[in-house]
Amino acid sequence: MIKRPKVAVVGSINMDLVISSPRIPLAGETILGKEFFTIPGGKGANQAVAASRLGAEVAIIGCVGDDIFGKELLDQLNKEKICRNYVSVFPDVSTGVASITVSEQGENCIVVSPGANYKLTPELVRKGEDFIKEADILLVQLEVPLDAVDEAVRIANEHQVKVILNPAPAKELPQSLLEKIDILTPNETEGKLLTTQWVDSNIDVEEIIRSLQKLGVKNVVITQGGEGVSYNDHHEIKHLPAYQVNVVDTTAAGDSFNAALGISLAEGASLTEAIQFAQKVAALTVTQFGAQTSLPYREQVDQFKGEK
Ligand code: RIB
């Protein structure tokens, strides 16, 4: 029998304020959208919920404000059977929110106001040290302060816990952090920014992977949406095409991909097998609207017979 993976997530907890709209507006333009929804989100919380629905024991380390959204999001973590002992509640700051527009084509545009997420400190991360050191995988992203991410990664390294860093939203990262990462999962734009500091750079995927490897990252897995995934398997660069599905909304696809990748590796899969599993999970995610409303359960993934 496969042991139940234990996953520690250090990251953001947001309420998503979502408007479905015929298209994404241009800068300076006002357009009429359609419906409005409040949906639990945040890259950290999305990863935690995805991991829990896929069968892992999960704890999240993060912060919310002492407000209505904070309370709703804590209830949501409870419902999803996620340990929230390491979530701090701050009275003087609002819970993180994301303003999201989703077009009829399933594209999105997201602006995050981090609020309480930026209250996360290395000291607060250390409160979750007991959980991190017992975990199979640490999942981190960049919607919380970098010194908190750094501390989580330091603890994980000290206890030989595998680290998956999703560098979103993209920012420059010091080599001292990159060399502690087992798997880095940028999309192509984030990969370009990390290597050349320039999103319009002509650098190709293989060059991005090689540059990040030179900076000390063990494995680089570049998610390319409908184009698939490129990654290094030891020294070889490989590519896996994407599943062909009806895209409703891509929000949280990256988050569910990361959670699934970690769980599959914790269950003993090879990197290629784990990416294939994560691709299924992400494919199911994009077929549904919203962040945590779209994250699939293990049975759905096991039954998924998508085509590439
Ligand atoms: O990755 C999707 C998430 O990004 C959304 O849920 C939103 O909260 C932002 O953090």
SSE layout and pairings?
Layout: E1 6-10, E2 14-21, E3 36-41, H1 43-53, E4 57-65, H2 68-79, E5 87-90, E6 96-103, E7 108-113, H3 122-126, H4 129-134, E8 137-140, H5 146-158, E9 162-165, H6 175-178, E10 183-184, H7 188-196, H8 205-214, E11 219-223, E12 229-233, E13 236-240, H9 253-266, H10 271-286, H11 298-303
Parallel strand pairs: 1-4, 1-8, 2-6, 4-5, 8-9, 9-10, 10-11
Antiparallel strand pairs: 2-3, 6-7, 11-12, 12-13
Helix pairs in contact: 1-9, 7-8, 9-10
The chain binds alpha-D-ribofuranose (RIB).
Alpha-D-ribofuranose (RIB) is lined by residues 12, 14, 16, 41-43, 46, 98, 110, 112, 143, 251-252, 254-255, 291.
Description of the structure:
It is a single chain. With 308 residues, this protein is of the alpha/beta class. 34% of the residues lie in helices and 23% in strands. The strands form 2 sheets. The protein has a 9-stranded mixed beta sheet with strand order 5-4-1-8-9-10-11-12-13, sandwiched between helices. The mean pLDDT is 96. Residues 12, 14, 16, 41-43, 46, 98, 110, 112, 143, 251-252, 254-255, 291 line the site of alpha-D-ribofuranose.
